Amino acid sequence: MWRLKQGLVESTVIENIRKPKRISKYAGLENPEEVKKWIATGKWRKSYKESLVNAYATWCDFRNIPFEKPKYHRDENLPFIPLEKELDVLISGVNEKTSIYLTLLKETGVESGEAWKLRVKDLWIEQRTVNIRGTKRHKGRQLKISSRLVSMLIPFTKDKEMDDRLFYGKIMHFRRWFELQRKELAKKLKSPRLMEISFRTFRHWKATTEYHKTKDILYVKQLLGHHNIKNTLIYTHLVNWENDDWVCKVALNLEEAVNLIESGFEYVTDFEDKKIFRKRK
To answer: What is the dihedral of CA 233, 200, 6, 16, to 10 degrees?
Structure first.
């Protein structure tokens, strides 16, 4: 409860409890120097060492133990960006609830916690939009979703009050269930790259594809809810699309054109009174 009162989100609170427990197995929590030595000699990435230090610092703050945090600068590793067909294989290979949740992440690029906290009143069916309540790191925003996703979400609103959540339970438990499904699917399809896809991967994929589609970094910044554009600039050089393959579709009428746009296709040109669209594979 103390951690929640300090403004930490639930997932951060859970990690701040787990990490000191792990540290206590190898070093005395009451001895900051012993803890610092154990962290420093560990063969982990600097980003993980930084997270251990931050969790332990919160523990020390609660118990009024003086602790001077060592500085670990995170490694600048570019995130994994899968092919769209790999995301779609994963979405179609998990159970219904997980599939709907992953589709929401793919279409909007929101943080997993932002999607998990959606309430019935945040879903605007007629406008086909969702209102995203920004976390402490991101701005609130309104995002468009496809009519297909709306129809998938409607059953989640049945017999619920406006303030009720669309998804129930703990997101940590849901994430573990997703990871089990992902492991089984990767093994079944003999596709180890699926194991690299996490909830956050959908956000990275969305941001990267939207930037390369629009070349508008301010639009991507708004889409992601970033406060600082420096956090958005990483997506300008993640993927080189120069030799990428395309899927082309032809729309014979307005309805087909709308459906293609909702599916991520972009308009190219008119030819013989027909509209041609394309989307990267």
So the answer is: -120
